[in-house]
Write a structure and sequence with these properties.
The chain is an alpha+beta fold. It has 7 helices and 5 strands, in the order αββαααααββαβ. Helix 4 (91-109) packs across helix 6. The chain starts with 18 loop residues before the first helix and ends in a 31-residue tail after the last strand.
Length: 224
């Protein structure tokens, strides 16, 4: 079980448990925790393998959820946690649709992955989320082209709980060394930008929680 209070995560059982792999991940966790920007490692199902203290700080005010905590599965957090919009600015078009595109690509490549299939079932159980996946997403992918499936380089809004940042932007940087790729993992770092640092952060009201798996309110398609 991961330490939910902060710091680094241990490797989940789905990853190889060899002594060499575990030692590498422990050292890599030390590297991540030396960074000032939120940085985390996920497996192909978006289970969070490692996360640094800056990542934990970013999501420290997120309320409890049985299946969609950010330090457990980042994809589930983005799609299903009712507090996701309090941290991920412009949540639906800037975070949900890109993550749904990544999910669609992953589930196509790894159709028999039980975790991905579980996420697909949860999407199907929520009418609005299912509409976004089946109807909104194809239009968005056609408009975005190959960039729909790439996180690296994307600039996305954040609402940081630290008032020194507040409403800001982050550039998503994908930097995955060979050893992590061989474990089926990907590393992402959210490089906070100072362009909006002085802007006052909006008040972070938690909206009423919907009954159902998801929380999308609108299926948006980008202007072409």
């Amino acid at each position: 079980m991961a330490n939910q209070a902060g710091g680094q995560r241990s490797a989940p059982q789905s990853l190889p448990a060899s002594r060499e792999a575990q030692a590498y991940l422990q050292d890599y966790a030390s590297l991540l925790d030396a960074l000032s920007f939120p940085s985390f490692v996920v497996d192909r199902s978006w289970d969070v393998v490692l996360a640094n203290s800056a990542f934990e700080t970013l999501f420290r005010e997120v309320g409890p959820h049985p299946t969609a905590m950010p330090h457990d599965n980042f994809l589930r957090f983005v799609l299903f946690h009712p507090d996701a919009h309090t941290v991920l600015g412009d949540h639906e078009p800037q975070w949900c649709l890109p993550m749904l595109a990544q999910f669609a690509s992953s589930v196509e490549r790894h159709n028999h992955d039980h975790q991905l299939q579980s996420i697909r079932r949860d999407i199907a159980q929520d009418p609005i989320m299912e509409a976004a996946f089946r109807q909104g997403l194809p239009h968005w992918i056609r408009a975005m082209g190959e960039y729909a499936f790439e996180h690296d380089g994307a600039v996305r809004p954040l609402l940081h709980p630290d008032p020194r940042w507040g409403a800001t932007d982050c550039r998503v940087v994908g930097e995955t060394p060979r050893a992590l790729r061989e474990l089926g993992c990907t590393r992402l770092t959210l490089v906070l930008r100072e362009t909006r640092k002085q802007a006052a952060a909006p008040r972070r009201h938690r909206r009423e929680r919907r009954v159902g798996a998801g929380h999308l309110s609108v299926v948006r398609t980008p202007e072409i």
